[in-house]
Amino acid sequence: MTHITPTKLEAMRKEYAARLTQPHIRHLFICGGTGCHATGSLKVKDALHEEIAKHGLEEKVRVVETGCNGFCALGPLMVVHPDNVFYQKMTVDDVAEIVSEHLVHEKPVERLMYKDPQSKKRVPLFSDIPFFALQKPWTLRNKGIINPESIEDYIGREGYMGLSKVLLEMEPSQIIDEMKASGIRGRGGAGFPTGMKWSFAAQNDSDIKYVLCNADEGDPGAFMDRSILEADPHAVLEGMTIAARAINATEGYIYCRSEYPLAIKRVQIAIDQARSLGLLGENIMGTGFSFDISIYQGAGAFVCGEETALMRSIEGKRGMPIPRPPFPAAQGLWKKPTILNNVETLANVGQIMLNGGKWYSSVGTENSKGTKVFALSGDVNNIGLVEVPMGTSLRSIVYDIGGGIPKKRKLKAVQLGGPSGGCIPEDHMDVVVDYEEIAKVGAIMGSGGVIVMDDKTCMVDMARFFLEFIQEESCGKCTPCREGTRRQLEILERICEGHGKPEDITLIEELSEMITASALCGLGQTASNPVLSVLRHFRNEFEAHIFDKKCPAKRCPALVEFKVIDERCKKCGKCAAVCPVGAVEWQKKEVAKINTEACVQCMSCYSACPFDAID
Amino acid sequence: MSCCSEEISQEMWSEVDSVIERHRETPGALITVLREAQDVVGWFPQALIEYIAKGMNIPASDVFGVVSFYSLFSLTPKGRNSIKVCTGTACYVKGAREVIGRISGEYGIAEGETTEDRRFDLEGVRCVGACGLAPAMVINGDVHGDVTADSVLKILEKYS
User: Fold this and answer.
1) Which of A166, A208, A293, A547 is a Cys-bridge partner for A252, taking CB atoms 3.0 to 4.6 Å apart?
2) Closest chain B C-alpha to A500 CA, distance in angstroms
3) So what's the pLDDT on residue B3?
4) Which of B31, B115, B113, B9 is closest to A304 using CA atoms?
5) Which pTM value belongs to this model?
């Protein structure tokens, strides 16, 4: 086999650049992420091909299915290159118009362009849309641009050039030095310096070492890793191979949730392509260095995101954590030195090697360098994947990029860090993205889930929700987590059901302290964070549930009795129309009335009333 | 658990055989074997657990331990159509609880149960990562977004 050379990589890069800048050729980048697939992007893609053929434009227009573009709420979406025009919410019926108007008559279709939620004006150019313009796509540099199933596209965007540099020009110790210089910290949430982690594993001598990629993205409300794997799988493979060179490992596993079939499919294609070009497998680039990667599918257990549990799971056992030390850097998978990094961390490695650690650390705050990818969701206008420099304020993420809260409602809190994190209230929104700063306000950076909650959210119910999650996912090995979280959940359940006792708050706090101090792994040690952060910032809501037997946000059915405020009711009857049990009595030109006996507290009328006349 | 080997046809048994055959020599392959076996049979009757244990030369108690640990594996029969409602935070905030409530009410099944005619089984699942479509529901692998308590029954009608 002839080995691929740096010259060949450079030639492929130039070829790709030439392909994109060919005069009179258009590229249609249509999003093929899970979100857009669900809203029908594959059908739109097929229709585009058909319509393009009908107009005989096959030579002039190339349709490229990319990974997740990031603006998931507006799918299916497409960017026309080089026109820089962005289309949203396309249907099969729109395709004929796009092709005949835009591609044939050079008149972009205005009605499918992005509409600014504030000014209500259409924004024709992709790069002018605030959602994209305010981001810094480093980790996501290839999203929406390359075909994730094409290694040529990846190489065209400087792919595998970091690996080439590492293998041909650098010593393993220099790789670790660059990682340390970059200041990058583990993006899975804990924020351990990646260079340091690698140096520990490099120091341990062993015939076999492993590099693992944690793609068991378990936090509810997080889809960064899935999007990266779907949009740019080669970046993760390149990162793993560089890590392997740094610690002298020969085998790697990507531990991916089985709930991510598209990501698994694309990573497998990427592995096969990398092998066929000699960028993975035996004697990579003719340097004598060998490393190979396989995918290991998880089987649905949140605790397997914890490093020692993940390794037990790869060994085919129950995924239960074990006490550390020994740390995985000394004894990990099959008791061999192992490093485990998150998808997002690994996706940055190639670029760090190519441009240097100093380049990466030029962005960010003093102790948090580079960028962070967040999955923005919940009660926010622009739902999707965003990447910002460290040091950006939460307010900017929610309002400038996220476009604020829908339906003119008020922001109540932002949840960061999932079941190990906390809620940050509106008056702390100026906190910046930085591991330490976020910890100061009672949350954690976490893996990147940002869930925005408006004033209709009950914070006590939120705390209950996370505890229920932790309680179900507790593996049961250590008593503090297994029993302690169950007792906490029982207390929260009774509070939400209106049976809260005055001493409950103190009890929760005592239990939290004990579980945090004595649980075996990160899952238990951080399990109390959500409830503690709610107690810290929304204590009054707890007190309203316990002492006044009221749920101020009207989410806890046992504590809510709906009634119509007569003077606000405009007699429109929308409440009666949506009630599933016929509990709303209404006649034309009459104020509606709710029969509290029949009411099942489903909130349908409350949400449907345009005048806030139901309380 | 009653012995349910009648649940498994001869054809299924030979497919399970070839699954075991493929992975018997690979260390740590139990979870992969179980996943593939479940794809064949649909769930884990006791007879299947014992058969795999023997084939892989692992104590049946260990195999049961793994089956019961991971949420992907089921110890009860599944329906022809599997309804998975995402209960991740974003979906929860946007009304997943109400969606599950409506399905439960209509078909008389709670989370984790299967209808008597085996038309549907219902699960509240961990975040499926489709937060942009919240609340999201997955039926037999098709993702449905922006599902509401009012629209969900209409979607289900299409699956018989």
Assistant:
1) A293
2) 22
3) 45
4) B31
5) 0.92
DSSP SS3 for A589: coil
For chain B, domain boundaries? 5-69, 81-157
Judged by phi (left if over 0) then psi (alpha if -120 to 50, else beta), residue A147 lies in beta
Binding residues of B: 86, 91, 127, 131
Place of tokens 């960010």: A364
Q: In the structure encoding, which two tokens stand for residue A418, read together? A: 């999932």
How far is Cα A492 from Cα A300, in angstroms, rounded to an integer?
26
Contact assignment for A383 to B134 by CB distance below 8 Å:
yes
pLDDT digits (tens, 9 = 90+) for A284-309: 999 999 999 999 999 989 999 999 99
Nearest CA in chain B to A416: B89
Q: Which residue of A has its CA nearest to B99?
A: A602
Element (DSSP H or E) covering residue A46? helix A41-54
Where do the H-state alpha helices sit in A547-591? 574-578
* A190/A15: higher pLDDT: A15
- Could you read off the pLDDT of A489-499 as tens digits, one per residue? 999 999 999 99
> How many angstroms separate the CA atoms of A251 and A547, rounded?
58
Helix (H) / strand (E) element for A444: namely none
Give the pair of three-digit tokens for residue B137.
Answer: 């529901």
* Length of chain A, in residues: 615
Amino acid at A165: K
Domains of chain A: residue spans and CATH? 6-133 (3.40.30.10), 151-361 (3.40.50.11540), 371-457 (3.10.20.600), 460-546 (1.20.1440.230), 561-615 (3.30.70.20)
Q: Would you say A501 and A517 are in contact if contact means Cβ atoms under 8 Å apart? A: no
B134 at the A interface (CB within 8 A)? yes
ipTM of the shown complex: 0.87
Tokens representing A373 are: 């990818």
The whole-number average pLDDT for the span A205-222 is 93
Q: What is the pLDDT of residues A229-274, one digit of tens each?
A: 999 999 999 999 999 999 999 999 999 998 888 999 999 999 999 9
CB distance A348 to A327 below 8 Å: no
B141 touches chain A (CB under 8 A): yes
Cα A247 to Cα A81, B1, B88, distances in angstroms: 41, 49, 37
Q: Give CATH for domain B81-157.
A: 3.40.30.10
Number of H helices, E strands in chain B: 7, 4
Phi first, then psi: what are they for A76, rounded to 5°?
-70, 140
Is B77 strand, coil or helix? coil
**Rounded to whole angstroms, what are the CA distances from A383 to A51, A135, A223, A466, A563?**
31, 14, 12, 21, 33
> What are the φ and ψ backbone dihedral angles of A145, each rounded to 5 degrees?
-115, -45
Q: How many Å apart are CA A263 and CA A34, to the nearest integer?
A: 9
Pairwise CA distance, residues B126 & B72, whole Å: 11
Mean confidence (pLDDT) of chain A: 94
The whole-number average pLDDT for the span A63-73 is: 91
For the cut 90, the answer to whether the pLDDT of residue A35 exceeds it is no
Cβ-based contacts under 8 A for chains A and B = 141
pLDDT of residue B1: 38
Contacts of A544 (CB under 8 A, 6+ apart): A550, A551, A552
Please tell me whether residue A378 adopts helix, strand or coil conformation. strand
Tokens of A462: 């939120």
Q: How far is CA A172 from CA A96, A176, A179, B39, in A?
A: 55, 7, 11, 43
Using DSSP's 3-state secondary structure scheme, residue A604 falls into helix
Q: Alpha-carbon distance A211 to A292, whole Å?
A: 10
pLDDT in tens, A101-147: 999 999 999 999 999 887 889 999 999 999 999 999 999 999 999 99
A35/B130 CB distance under 8 A: yes
Q: Is residue B91 over pLDDT 90?
A: no
Of A314, A451, A466, the CB nearest to B28: A314
